[in-house]
Write a structure and sequence with these properties.
Layout lengths: L1 E4 L3 H13 L5 E4 L7 H9 L4 E2 L4 H4 L7 H10 L2 H10 L4 E3 L4 E4 L4 H15 L2 E3 L4 E6 L3 E5 L3 E4 L1 E4 L5 H9 L5 E7 L1 E4 L12 E8 L5 E8 L3 E3 L1 H9 L1 H6 L3 E7 L8 H11 L15 H7 L12 H12 L1 E6 L1 E3 L5 E6 L4 E2 L4 E2 L5 E3 L13 H17 L2
Parallel strand pairs: 1-2, 1-10, 2-6, 10-22
Antiparallel strand pairs: 3-5, 4-5, 7-8, 8-9, 11-19, 12-15, 12-18, 13-14, 13-16, 14-15, 16-17, 20-21
Helix pairs in contact: 1-6, 1-13, 2-6, 4-13, 10-12
The chain binds flavin-adenine dinucleotide.
Length: 394
């Protein structure tokens, strides 16, 4: 018998693949709550961003701040194209958005849930909700002590996501190291930001975190609480540990004109010669949103004629290195994830079997793997779930 602990994305995909590979083996999913696939339901704002349109494993791994090296060979076994085909074979048609995110064509996460439930039922997987695991021990087989009964399994797959009791189970079996779990994928709060009145502005900017190597050039969204958009969400993933250590108090530096790699001082001195009466406010060179440009030029209202080279240097610095204090974070409601989990060096990525505890497999977010926003976290669940399920079924 194979027991899968956790009725989320990774647990379901592992169980389905185990049963498909070896229909004679009994497969049970034990879920502690009353509902199944809860995160799938709320994912992507209810639309479920199932994966990303990135089909080269070498490129795909660059979207994982943690787990990138380890995922390379698993992605050669099962990658976004495979989950797309798997879904389409089961009549779930997907669509790719302009930024590469892939959703069911119906924009409904329920379609993915229905597909998994139908598949699991068709295969005869025994799904049990409201299961409280008291403890699991291993002699030859695993003994799973539940409230009212005891199960014996030859193979065990832990797919408990970022739950504390899942980490405790992993630590209790073979003494796995748990890398401390902390949040990843969040937006930055800037309660004192003078940009708050400009909320809603969405532009490409280069954003870096002061005193760190972390930098992203991508869409930046100004919000009523601070900063969001892909540039910020990606920074929050790549710098998750550093920002946690700083207790989410740090400075971001914005280059408002990353696509204009010119010396702005020389550029304005040149214009000054031709159009000395013009003001900077009238010379929106990067075609930034009007209100933003007005804000950035508010201390430079005089005609170019009266702007010294030193003042222009200050203006250039403001456009290229504009600093804002961040104080706190907000979860990104469309997707967030935990960084940390079972240490990757203790897992064999050809099989997803533990190196410390024979016949124990891991899948999904329980591992110290996380991707940036965009469907990469589910892809980790599908890939590791696929391999764990197939290998446990052997
Ligand atoms: C709001 C939100 C939106 C998201 N949107 C996206 C998205 O659009 N695209 C994307 O790629 N990623 C998204 N993610 C991330 C993605 O949901 C997770 O990475 C993914 O669900 C991980 O799958 P998992 O099966 O490993 O863990 P989970 O989905 O967390 O499933 C774990 C399951 O195990 C159960 N469990 C825990 N402990 C025990 C125990 N002791 N016994 C029995 N059962 C237990 C839990 O109740 C849960 O059902 C989102 C996350 C959130 C929170």
């Amino acid at each position: 018998m194979i027991v899968v602990v956790g009725g989320g994305a990774a647990g379901f995909f592992a169980a389905i693949n185990a049963k498909e590979k070896n229909p004679t083996r009994k497969v049970i999913i034990l879920e502690k709550t009353a509902s199944l696939l809860t995160k799938v339901k709320i994912s992507g704002g209810g639309r479920c961003n199932v994966t990303h349109g990135c089909f080269d494993p070498k490129h795909l791994i660059t979207h994982y701040p943690r787990g990138n090296k380890e995922l390379l060979s698993p992605f050669y076994q099962f990658q976004p194209q495979d989950i797309i085909k798997w879904l389409e074979d089961r009549h779930v048609v997907v669509k790719e958005e302009s930024d590469g995110r892939i959703f069911p064509k119906t924009d409904s996460s329920q379609e993915i849930i229905n597909c998994f439930l139908q598949e699991a039922n068709k295969l005869g997987i025994d799904i049990r909700t409201c299961q409280k695991i008291e403890k699991i021990t291993q002699t030859k087989n695993f003994t799973i002590q539940l409230e009212k009964e005891c199960l014996s399994a030859e193979k065990l797959i832990l797919a408990t996501g970022s739950s504390k009791d899942g980490f405790s189970l992993a630590a209790s079996l073979g003494g796995h190291t748990i890398i401390p779990p902390i949040p990843s994928i969040f937006t930055f709060n800037a309660p004192e930001s003078p940009l708050k009145p400009l909320s809603g502005i969405d532009i490409i900017a280069k954003v870096s975190i002061a005193e760190t190597p972390f930098v992203q050039t991508a869409p930046l969204l100004l919000t009523h609480f601070g900063f969001s958009g892909p540039a910020i969400l990606r920074l929050s993933s790549w710098a998750a540990r550093v920002l946690y250590e700083k207790q989410y108090q740090f400075t971001i530096v914005i280059d408002w004109l990353p696509n204009l790699p010119i010396n702005l001082v020389d550029y304005f001195i040149d214009i000054k010669k031709k159009l000395p009466q013009k003001t900077l406010q009238q010379l929106n060179i990067g075609k930034l949103p009007k209100n933003l440009w007005k804000h950035l030029t508010k201390n430079f209202k005089e005609p170019l004629l009266h702007l010294s080279k030193d003042r222009l240097k200050i203006f250039e610095r403001q456009l290229r290195c504009d600093c804002y204090a961040i104080n706190g974070k907000t979860p990104h409601k469309e997707e967030f994830v935990t960084c940390g989990g079972v240490a990757l060096k203790e897992v064999c990525f050809a099989t997803m079997e533990s190196k410390l505890c024979k016949n124990l497999y891991f899948a999904g977010e329980i591992l110290d793997i996380d991707g940036i926003t965009g469907g990469f976290n589910f892809q980790n669940a599908w890939t590791t779930g696929f391999i764990a399920g197939c290998c446990a079924a052997r």
